[in-house]
Design a protein that fits this description.
homohexamer, 251 residues, alpha/beta, Rossmann fold, seven-stranded mixed β-sheet
Chain lengths: 251, 251, 251, 251, 251, 251
């Protein structure tokens, strides 16, 4: 893969988040021939695996199940995936964890970053993941920041200033999520659906997130105007751009 | 000019606003071969012509001076300009004025709209212009809204949903102006400078707005990252996108 | 109807708004034996009747069609409806219109008021309706404010301080709509669906708003907790309370 | 006490906070026969015991004094009280402390939670308490989260989704405290006054908080309207609801 | 009175507002030998004179009563007062009214301006007064803006850029009133109390606003620190500065 | 130096921040004969020393270089400087670090405090420094909080409630920096320029921050009004006051 391939880095608090919230953007990127790297900070083993706990499964087995599902879903999206196994409920914001993320950033050299928004009253792990993703991105830009094992010089190049987009939380208004980017994922949606179906324990979510894609698609059309020639059923995902857009054309 | 030429519509409260605040975006558009239409709601004859009033000039002469300057500046930018002569200080938000703007929208068929932000504690005319620009845009989309003379059917087609960008006010923080788009105007800046020099009464502003372009240019580079290969002296203009961006690529 | 019957007053900018956005709350009230009064400030004849304009129908016929539909929908919900015919696109905020609403408030003696939220970047009429509804509510409380024809004493009693709830706009996040009340409308939804089906020109919206009810219902359950014994498929509507809730129990 | 008794859980940073800020709500609950459990994260031994330090008392004695006062005040309100002794000034937000609170939540099975608001520029402990109270509530809902000693299965049931209300800080506007619930505590106020009088070191506060109750009571009446038949002197407490209210009646 | 005497201009929606909300600042100014000019936009004849309407008094008599009371209160504060009689409930924001205020500004040449905050969900007149006060201030700065009768040159000099302070509304948090200036009015308070007692119809407010002064005084002390040597009972008024403070010392 | 000398305390995340952002305020204070104490939490050795790292210098040498530069710059401003050497990129918010700052506060007895604003999406260290500066200020007020080595009684007196001002970040709008104080630093600017020139590695910043001073100076004049007799070229610095201003004159 050439050095100049655009690369999408997705920082996900739990093993399933990247599928529901950013599956369309990931599939769209890989369908364009770009690279997509997903990093799951935890497996969601405590906070998002209620059905397995009810069945009395032990912690290690639950983690293995969640990991296998996430690997399948990433494969369906054409993405690489890695796991930092930092623990969840709570996912603790800690310097060591951030430093590991710095390594990931430098290794992946992302041109675009996706993560959770900074506020979620229903799930503190999501906000912790966002804070760590943002801090690591700034640290990874500095030549003076060492590798996570303390060694120097850094194994990989420092990074540039990739734009960051927050993906949609479960209750957007309560999480102060005001989308400023609506992404058309019509062509990519079949892959997202396929990835969702890799998560059988949450079967009721498949339809829920398909309907959300329809609703965001209506907004894509409404904001693009009638003249854009979009297909009748446009499917969308909503994002919040964190840093200002840099461009040479207003459009 | 073919029907499909992109068209930039700039709604300016006074005769000079479009030069200082959006001259780079206008010149960049016309340099790409696009059409740019500036509509000045007033000449700025009362509120922004202090030196002429001090010289005791009559109202009509002041208006003529400001109009001529604006025409020269628009020409320097490669833009068309028209004047609604609605009066300033105060520029009054009124249904008739909005209706005239509806005609302008439908005649121009803009693909992008620029105007003032909705808040400016130092100049109520700017906010009034923004409110009217936004209302007219929505009305111009409706097939049931008549021409400004009440006739039907409408002389021109209804419009789509062009994106709206607010340009930078004089005191950005006080006007709740948080830019989410930084426009690289390096190549277009010589034309902007030429247009500024068409406004001789405000000679001290030439350098002021050149310095602002440098400062916004630093932010262009800072937000784009070191890898983008931008020239050493990048010049910028700051904008606030009002509606969410519609796109099929996150970048 | 006894003086003490609770009365819901719904102030709707256009003839259809109350159905999509508040139909569940209205039906729930009338199913409890309460009175519901809908006042449509306009018929939505210009801004929300595109298909009729495309068919070349004259203005009066369009207004009559919209009125008949709204009457049918109100009947389906068990509500009274009246029309102020103030014109739309734009619906103009004017003292005379507000004064007419004062009469409505005093005649209806509402115990609860529903209207649009104060911000909607896609439709200025909605915000204008909200501003008028709020102003009229305050004026109707004052014994010194005359009837709309200038006569004294007032034909009806002044009103108390009924709570005001904003119903959901089409693009909630863009309209700064952060719900602080989630209403369970499971039992009332069949009547809402029936009312929606009184609006045949917008058939594609029937399913859209049914899906929205499902999504808001998920949030009802999520915010109520697993212990509340809600039915599997709970349906909801989202509201924003404008004034603080007054209560003698925190719950 | 039956399983279904409503239970109020109050998370208080220091030993006295629950009295001044939520005494009315607590007394109202116990007067209705409900259970109220107060958990004091610290005794306020360093930051809110200036007079004892000036008298040269040792730390342990100060803690004992504050504890005894809080026990008396809780008894006056009819509430249970426990102390986590986490230290104050600063009260440090830490995973272990949050985990202890998870145990409290599961043991108490609250139907309503009261705590500090998330912002207080004058006292960082208050915000830290709020953050811990909110995190513990979410963790206590997850079956996969262990007891604070790491054992499994959990000693008590997981909890539902009790509503959370922030009580009033000392300088409400500076703490971004915009009340959306005004609680009528007229009947409960004598017990609150009695509880306040259990805190003799802050005698000047008795009258201060009585006056605040009068002022909030005026707002209770103002927001309830003249028709509600409230007593002449209504006494109130102000709260901010954190999650949306779930209801089947708008009122 | 010398040209350079500092002058306080108070723009009050109704005849009584300046007393309750800014009486301390006014008295403090006149006690320093400065000039204070109060302009009442209306008498509050419809919205704030319920007891007179209940007694069946005619409009003109009510206006005369309110005017006399306001004149007495202004005299007690050492202030001049004038009345624009623009009508209340609603007080309508209109170009002609604003133009009259422009004359007042130029005649008074204020060095400081006080008015209502821009938001008040309980009283639209207050926000309308604030909007007009702010617009008139900007217009009065422009040499090209004529006298209110259209004549030129302007009878009085244009004004500078006096700072604007919003005084406290009845329900501060609901009106987004976050004070950033706490004014010590201890010495001036006896005059404020005397002015309040000129308004006999609202006797219950005398004590209410005395208690508010005590509460704001506690905040004066809390924000000034223990070292400032303030008297035991400090009395305060709260303000919001609208434009940034200009200073050559940070303190 | 007498006990009553006003003292400015500046809490700076890195060794250079106080120069660019607050050099004018510091010089103005020392020129008035006041004391100024700068505390640098780190040397900026990792995050703000890219050119030294590129030259392959070791960590200790980089720290020594930055320290020497900061000492020179402080001397140019007439200020004392000390270094806590807490490390940067990331600067970690920790109880021990805060406790050391408590000692600094009590030793310095500041009458005014300057630090970074609470938000900076480009540099997490700045926000961490602000949070620690604010927490330490509150802790230093409490007689019950020990010295940082745990000993009692405290070596120095507790402090009062000095006002806190945030100085300007590099990208103000992105950092939610809305200045409410504009400081005239015209007379002090030559010293600030001299201090900037003590930082040779960032020579391109000298002109950048000189231009910023001009721009803020324009705002000083614009907000002060034409009558204030300010010099033609006024130079300024922008600040955000965190706590409300306490005053006995509105001006």
């Amino acid at each position: 893969m050439a050095e100049s391939t655009p690369t999408l880095l997705v920082v996900s608090a739990h093993a399933g988040d990247f599928v529901w919230r950013a599956g369309g953007a990931i599939a769209a990127a890989t369908m364009r021939g770009e690279r997509a790297v997903v990093v799951c900070l935890s497996y969601g083993e405590r906070g998002e695996s209620a059905s397995q706990w009810l069945q009395g499964k032990p912690l290690d087995e639950i983690k293995a199940i969640r990991r296998a599902e996430a690997e399948d879903a990433a494969a369906a999206l054409g993405a690489e995936v890695e796991f930092l196994d930092l623990g969840d409920y709570p996912l603790i914001e800690a310097p060591e964890a951030i430093q590991k993320l710095v390594d990931v950033y430098r290794r992946a050299q992302p041109t675009v970053v996706l993560t959770h928004p900074l506020s979620d009253p229903y799930n503190g792990d999501h906000a912790a993941a966002a804070r760590m993703a943002l801090q690591a991105r700034v640290l990874a830009q500095a030549i003076g920041v060492a590798n996570s094992d303390g060694s120097f010089p850094t194994k990989d190049e420092i990074i540039g200033a990739p734009p960051v987009f927050f993906f949609e939380p479960h209750q957007p208004e309560q999480s102060d999520f005001k989308p400023n980017v609506l992404l058309d994922v019509t062509a990519a949606f079949p892959l997202k659906r396929k990835a969702m179906e890799c998560l059988p324990a949450q079967k009721h979510m498949w339809e829920y997130y398909t309907q959300l894609a329809i609703r965001r698609g209506v907004q894509v059309k409404r904001n693009a105007g009638p003249n854009l020639g979009l297909p009748h059923e446009t499917l969308g995902e909503a994002y919040m751009r964190y840093y200002p857009q840099v461009t040479d054309v207003l459009e």
